[in-house]
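Lab meeting, item 3. Inverse folding demo.
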């Protein structure tokens, strides 16, 4: 199953996070997600291989929340489906559910990495030195 770029990542969720806490918050959240998600996916995969539906459910539940915060709604939906199957004890479907999450994560990761690069560039270029105070201040410009 393929998803369009628009379905892969909801830009309005990212914009909302920038409005809430600025580009640095969004960049930090994306970096944490990109580091944490593979660990949780691996835990879900191990759980699926062991037939441990509870482990799959825990891993996918955590992923679902963070994916949703970052607008990765396709991934969030795949996590939700896998979590539901795990909570129902459908061990036969766990491998496919985790594989679907991995596919959705790959698509979301690509889009999120592009946002981190753009935001990092914008943050670097928007720092201006205040010669009177001798300190750096953010100008507040955010790349869209």
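The presenter then showed the designed sequence:
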């Amino acid at each position: 199953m393929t998803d369009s770029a628009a379905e892969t990542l909801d830009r309005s969720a990212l914009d909302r996070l920038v409005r809430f806490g600025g580009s640095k918050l969004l960049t930090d959240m994306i970096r944490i997600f990109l580091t944490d998600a593979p660990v949780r996916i691996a835990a879900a995969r191990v759980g699926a291989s062991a037939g441990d539906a509870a482990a799959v459910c825990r891993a996918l539940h955590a992923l679902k929340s963070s994916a949703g915060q970052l607008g990765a709604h396709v991934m969030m939906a795949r996590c939700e489906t896998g979590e539901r199957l795990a909570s129902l004890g459908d061990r036969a479907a766990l491998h496919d559910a985790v594989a679907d999450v991995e596919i959705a994560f790959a698509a979301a990761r690509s889009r999120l990495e592009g946002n981190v690069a753009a935001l990092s560039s914008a943050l670097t270029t928007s720092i201006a030195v205040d010669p009177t105070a001798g300190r750096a201040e953010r100008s507040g410009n955010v790349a869209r």
